[in-house]
Amino acid sequence: MAAGEVLRSFSQLFFPETCAGCAGKLTSSENFICSDCISSLSILTPEERLAEYKGRYETDKLIDAIYPLFGMMKDSAEIEIIHRVKYRNKQRMAVFLGRRHAEEIIDYYDCDILTPVPLHKLKKLERGYNQSELISRGISEVSGIPVVNALTKTKYTETQTHKSGFERRKNIYNTFVLSKGVSVEGKSVVLVDDVLTTGSTVSECARVLKENGASKVTVATLALTL
Ligand SMILES: [Zn+2]
Q: What CA dihedral angle connects 159, 54, 217 and 82, to 10 degrees?
């Protein structure tokens, strides 16, 4: 056993890590999520991703493809995992899941940059981190695609969770700009976020990127609400 592993086992004896999906105890070979939960994640097939894309985004011409890793239904283990990534300071887990994303899906590897959906600076201060940046970092570690913070959120908006599709679009309209000193002219951009719900946020980000000359905008997320 290497020194690092000894230390890790030792710390787990006193501070056992629990699974983000089922809250069960993790073994020393498991990271963040137990192997049972990992195998029960409903990883979407390429056909399922394409069908969801066609049903949701094909007509608006802003988003060219979507790559959610898994589908997320009400009261599922996936919901708990995403909730932890977002609100419970599980920063290493966000990077870990980003790596899983890039190991599982390689379709977007020919793009130029990864751009996290930004948080307003006050919201980032409140939360302490932007989960989309951490997921991007994980994807970048595996795929080698650079992370560029190409977008800035200029307005603080209330949480979108309880709003209708129309209200979400209205709420988010004109709240993103291209970051100072960044050019996306002719670039193929992958927008990275944690969850794809109605897509109003990523559509608005895509609009700004395309207006500034991006040739292609695809979306990579951990989850897709089904
Ligand atoms: Zn579990």
A: 40
**Given this model, what pLDDT does residue 77 score?**
76
Amino acid 73 reads: M
Task: Count Cβ atoms below 10 Å from residue 43 Cβ, excluding itself.
Answer: 14
198-213 CB burial, b ≥16 within 10 A, e <16 = bbbbbbbbbbbbbebe
Q: Is the pLDDT of residue 87 over 80?
A: no
For the chain, what are the domain ranges? Answer: 10-40, 41-225
Q: At what angle do helices 91-104 and 77-87 cross, to 10 degrees?
A: 130
pTM of this structure: 0.86
90 CA → ligand 1 middle, Å: 15
CA gap 80, 70 in Å, rounded: 13
Q: CB of 154 within 8 A of CB of 175?
A: yes
Q: For tokens 């309209």, what's the residue?
A: 173
Ligand 1 center from residue 36 Cα (angstroms):
6
25 C-alpha to center of ligand 1: Å?
A: 8
Q: Select from 64, 76, 86 the least CA-distant residue to 193.
A: 86
Answer whether residue 16 shows pLDDT above 70: no
Centre of ligand 1 to C-alpha 127, Å, is 25
Most confident of 63-72, 74-83, 167-176: 63-72
CATH architecture for residues 41-225: 3-Layer(aba) Sandwich (3.40)
